[in-house]
């Protein structure tokens, strides 16, 4: 199942393997998805041997600031200061398993909840207090992860944050244990759910898998005026799959080549909700708001409540939609967020599951009666003006490529056929708008993320891949399909399906400087499917 960068596995197995991401993304058969699930290592935990729904869903604790520091942009103005220790922890994922070794923030994984208001900045000291040795298999053949580098490097990125370049967590800005990074997050952006995570060159898939991610909420008046469910009726929920061994410890799959253990994608045997395996949550029969984030390395989710109960999607990556979207399933690729209102009032006294196509994730125990529900689900949320294509001063065609060796085995993926270390080629001008045509030439679906900016999806359109590869000619084979209703809001991560050109329109506002764009399948990102871009000042 797991493919080596070179050598043995056949093209056929590879193709079957790669089917999976596309299958989920396009809503194809569950059988195919399940068939493509990873082969468990011999010591794998069988999650069916554990009693489900015995642990309450953990809710991340709100991080409190203890002091202040001057605002780097106006030094007479103090900003709240947070110190977050990145350290090794042992945490129980299930009542009947021993504690699992992980890496976390201030003692937990996922890390504590950050919450601030739009325009209310902060200073965060990210302190690397990790042990010198990594506990997951580093591939020293990957760029940036060479054997002469410290093992437990880390650098934190605020995903979706409009952050000055020096505080953005550039992959090469990592620090070794004992050192800190002090970052400034101005948070001048609309209310939304961001998340923070490790971004270290060459090992970011391992550091995140070890536990280095957490939720970060930004509030504003527009959101507050809507009277959405809040307080204990608003549930931050980070979901990710992990391979657990029968001793409860994390296993990260390897290729079989000890010199080059990298595997192209990881799908695991258990699903964790806020770090717990099959937890339950006591709820009242009333409206709740769920702030859901896909924190998996590679797994796509299609989430549903109960037997396809109706839910309302009210927001995505970069904030509220213009109006709620009624649906029964929510599709989330890695790094995408979904803001969901679900009404339990029809389920008083019952239980209900939150499911993915491959897992029952957690159980809701609905009480018989509710306290008064004065929250609302307004018919309109936040006006979103669609950006006219005519405002774009440039259209950039960028490609997603598969990097093949001589025997046509995949060695990994690239952006624009260009490895990370090559000179910067994408240099948008500050305060201009560009259209990016993302041409997917691979057999896989990739969630593509740009730092700093928010963007809108214009459309997706299938094309003749072979003709394009042979002649460079773009021949479309379908009409341009508009984004799904829930994708009509502001985004920072876009699902780029195989054989499609995905067009996004991107206002480059905020800051000049060096940022990155990349695939958010973490194994791809770590193996060259990441490129810098540089926002430059206009003349
Ligand atoms: Cu979620 Cu480059 O990040
Ligand atoms: Cu990818």
Summarize the structure.
With 539 residues, the chain is mainly beta. The chain is built from six helices and 32 strands. The chain binds CU-O-CU linkage and copper (II) ion.
Question: Secondary structure elements and their pairing?
Answer:
Blueprint: H1 11-25, H2 30-35, E1 55-56, E2 67-71, E3 74-91, E4 100-105, E5 114-117, E6 122-128, E7 156-159, E8 180-185, E9 192-198, H3 204-210, E10 213-219, H4 221-225, E11 234-244, E12 250-251, E13 270-273, E14 276-277, E15 279-283, E16 287-294, E17 301-305, E18 311-316, E19 319-327, E20 330-332, E21 337-343, E22 351-355, E23 360-366, E24 392-404, E25 410-415, E26 432-440, E27 446-450, E28 456-462, H5 465-471, E29 493-496, E30 500-508, E31 513-519, H6 522-526, E32 530-535
Parallel strand pairs: 1-15, 3-6, 5-10, 11-16, 15-23, 24-26
Antiparallel strand pairs: 2-3, 3-4, 6-8, 7-9, 9-10, 11-12, 11-13, 13-14, 16-21, 17-20, 17-22, 18-19, 18-21, 22-23, 24-25, 26-30, 27-29, 27-31, 28-30, 31-32
The site of copper (II) ion has 6 residues, from loops.
Structural class: mainly beta
User: So what's the overall shape?
Assistant: globular
Give the overall average pLDDT. 92
The percent of residues in helical segments reads under 10%
Helix count equals: 6
Question: How much of the residues is beta strand, in percent?
Answer: 35-45%
User: Bound compounds, please?
Assistant: CU-O-CU linkage, copper (II) ion
CATH superfamily of the domain at 389-535: Cupredoxins -  blue copper proteins
What's the CATH topology label of the domain at 389-535? Immunoglobulin-like
Largest sheet properties: 8 strands, mixed
Query: What's the end-to-end separation, in Å?
Result: 52 Å
> Unreliable runs, pLDDT <50, ≥5 residues?
1-38
Question: Which CATH first-tier class of the domain at 389-535 would you pick?
Answer: Mainly Beta
CATH architecture of the domain at 389-535: Sandwich
Q: Measured on Cα atoms, how large is the radius of gyration?
A: 22 Å
Tell how many strands the DSSP assignment holds.
32
């Amino acid at each position: 199942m797991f493919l080596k960068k070179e050598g043995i596995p056949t093209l056929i197995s590879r193709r079957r393997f790669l089917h999976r991401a596309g299958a989920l993304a396009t809503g194809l058969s569950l059988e195919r998805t399940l068939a493509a699930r990873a082969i468990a290592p011999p010591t794998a935990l069988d999650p069916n041997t554990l009693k489900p729904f015995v642990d309450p869903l953990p809710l991340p604790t709100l991080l409190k600031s203890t002091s202040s520091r001057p605002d780097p942009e106006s030094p007479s103005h103090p900003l709240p200061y947070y110190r977050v220790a990145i350290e090794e922890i042992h945490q129980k994922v299930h009542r009947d398993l021993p504690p699992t070794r992980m890496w976390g923030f201030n003692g937990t994984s996922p890390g504590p909840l950050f919450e601030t208001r739009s325009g209310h900045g902060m200073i965060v000291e990210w302190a690397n207090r990790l042990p010198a040795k990594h506990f997951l298999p580093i591939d020293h053949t990957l760029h940036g992860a060479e054997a002469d580098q410290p093992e437990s490097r880390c650098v934190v990125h605020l995903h979706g944050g409009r952050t000055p370049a020096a505080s953005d967590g550039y992959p090469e800005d990592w620090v070794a244990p004992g050192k800190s990074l002090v970052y400034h997050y101005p948070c001048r952006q609309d209310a939304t759910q961001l998340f923070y995570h490790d971004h270290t060159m060459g090992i970011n898939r391992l550091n995140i898998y070890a536990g280095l991610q957490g939720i970060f909420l930004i509030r504003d008046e527009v959101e507050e005026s809507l009277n959405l469910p809040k307080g204990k009726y608003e549930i931050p929920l980070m979901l990710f799959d992990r391979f657990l061994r029968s001793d409860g410890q994390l296993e990260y799959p390897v290729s079989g080549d000890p010199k080059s253990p990298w595997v192209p994608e990881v799908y695991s045997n258990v699903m964790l909700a806020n770090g717990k395996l099959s937890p339950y949550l006591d709820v009242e029969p009333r409206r709740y708001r769920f702030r859901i984030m896909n924190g998996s390395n590679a797994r796509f989710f299609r989430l549903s409540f109960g037997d396809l109960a109706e839910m309302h999607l009210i927001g995505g990556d970069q904030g509220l939609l213009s109006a709620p979207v009624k649906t029964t399933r929510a599709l989330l690729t890695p790094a995408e967020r979904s803001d969901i209102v679900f009404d339990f009032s029809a389920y008083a006294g019952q239980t209900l599951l939150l499911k993915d196509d491959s897992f029952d994730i957690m159980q809701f125990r609905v009480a018989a009666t509710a306290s008064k529900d004065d929250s609302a689900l307004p018919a309109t949320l936040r006006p979103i003006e669609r950006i006219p294509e005519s405002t774009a001063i440039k259209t950039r065609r960028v490609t997603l490529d598969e990097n093949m060796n001589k025997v046509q085995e995949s060695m990994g993926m690239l952006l624009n056929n260009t490895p990370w270390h090559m000179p910067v080629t994408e240099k948008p001008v500050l305060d201009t708008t560009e259209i990016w045509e993302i041409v997917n030439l691979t057999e896989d679906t990739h969630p593509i993320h740009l730092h700093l900016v928010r963007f809108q999806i214009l459309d997706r359109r299938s094309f003749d891949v072979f003709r394009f590869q042979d002649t460079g000619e773009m021949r479309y084979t379908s009409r341009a399909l508009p984004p799904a209703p829930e994708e009509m809001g502001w985004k920072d991560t876009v699902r780029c399906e195989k054989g499609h050109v995905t067009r996004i329109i991107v206002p480059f506002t905020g800051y000049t400087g060096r940022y990155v764009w990349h695939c958010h399948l973490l194994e791809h990102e770590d193996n060259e499917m990441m490129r810098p871009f540089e926002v430059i000042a206009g003349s």
